[in-house]
Amino acid sequence: QVQLVESGGGLVQPGGSLRLSCLASGLVFSDYHMAWYRQAPGKQRDLVALITSGGSTNYADSVRGRFTISRDDAQNTVYLQMNSLTPDDTAVYYCGDYPRRRYWGQGTQVTVTS
To answer: Residue-wise over 69-106: b if at least 16 C-beta within 10 A, else e?
Structure first.
């Protein structure tokens, strides 16, 4: 049974930083491309950043230069370092496999507000 467990969300002021983590189990993690997605209230779930099994990365235009995705295959964990946060980054953040989106975590809330 595949499980993805996100952590690290919270309340932060504009300009602040957070680091999200996603611990995976039940799959050969190193074989999977992984991604972070986010969903704001009333909006669809959008891709934020992805990292391939080989370590290549790509980002949504809205976060490029501010967010960094990384992975530690020995720890079955994918990370999202988020800097220079703005209120527009407020959403529930999910990790999932890419591109098929078969597996999801429960999400972690990120709220950026002064």
So the answer is: bebeeeebbbbbebeebeeebbbbbbbbbbeeeebebe
